[in-house]
Structures are given as structure tokens and as C-alpha cells.
Request: fold
Amino acid sequence: MREVTCPNCGSVFVCTHDDECFCAKYELSEGACRTLQRLYDECLCEQCLSQYADKSKDEPR
Reply:
């Protein structure tokens, strides 16, 4: 586990960086994954990640 500051909103959260991490429950399109990798060098908090996941629901996987 590690404490991370979300590069999108600045909130601080704990990243377990494993299958138990909150991010494992979100599905993103390939395009959304590429965009996040290009824009950010660090994990996003759950709120920001969920917004990207919601936006990518209509995109092809």
C-alpha cells in the first residue's frame, strides 16, 4: 500500500496496487486507458477514475 495524491484533483488516497485496489472494479475502453496513461504518471483517485469509466461506457472495448 502507498499513499498517493491524485494528479487530476489533488485528493490523497491509498493505492494497494493489486487486485484488491478499488481500480480493479472499473472497466475502461482501450482509448480511455491510453488517454489516462498519456495524461498521468500516477494513479487517479476513485472519484476521478469512476468519471473516466462512466465516460468510456459507450466506447468500444
Q: What stands out?
A: Residues 10 and 46 are 12 Å apart (CA to CA).
